[in-house]
Each structure stands twice: as C-alpha cells, then as structure tokens.
Design a protein that fits this description.
alpha+beta, five-stranded antiparallel sheet, globular
Length: 89
C-alpha cells in the first residue's frame, strides 16, 4: 500500500500521480507514496483500487478538486498531497 522510494527523483522514474492528471482525465489509485500522508488520504477515501477523476484546479493550480469512485465523492487536496497518490499504469 505504501511505497517509499528514495530514488523517486532518479532518472527513469515515470510513475504518474494524481497531480499529473489533466482536467477530466481519470486514473486508478495504485498506492500512496508518503507514509505520513497516507493515513489522512486513506481516511478521505483515496484507497488503492478506487477510480479518481480530476474535475478541476484552482486558478493558480493549487488545490485540485478530485472525484472519487462511483459515488461521486468530491475531495479537494493540495498539489503536494496529490503528488503522493500514485496511479496504476
């Protein structure tokens, strides 16, 4: 569920996160990268396997508005938090 990767900034790490989605694009949550942030995100519904859609961005790009799952649960997160939610390839 968690993925701690000290080489996440290394060349060749092309994992997509929720922050990389374009407005209207969807993805499926794979895992959460930051163990400290993971509990907060899990409580808000960002569990592995759930589908997430980026429905909007604030004018300056932060925060992001996400729609989780089939029940149309809307969630706003900071861009830094969205970067820790990794998507399945």
């Amino acid at each position: 569920m968690f993925r701690r990767s000290p080489s996440s900034t290394a060349i060749g790490s092309a994992r997509r996160s929720v922050r990389d989605l374009r407005v209207g694009e969807t993805g499926t949550v794979c895992c959460l990268e930051d163990p400290e942030m993971a509990l907060k995100l899990l409580e808000m519904g960002c569990v592995p396997g759930v589908q997430v859609r980026l429905s909007g961005r604030a004018p300056l790009g932060d925060p992001l508005m996400l729609v989780l799952g089939d029940q149309e649960y809307t969630l706003s997160v900071r861009a830094s938090e969205a970067a820790t939610i990794l998507l399945k390839e």
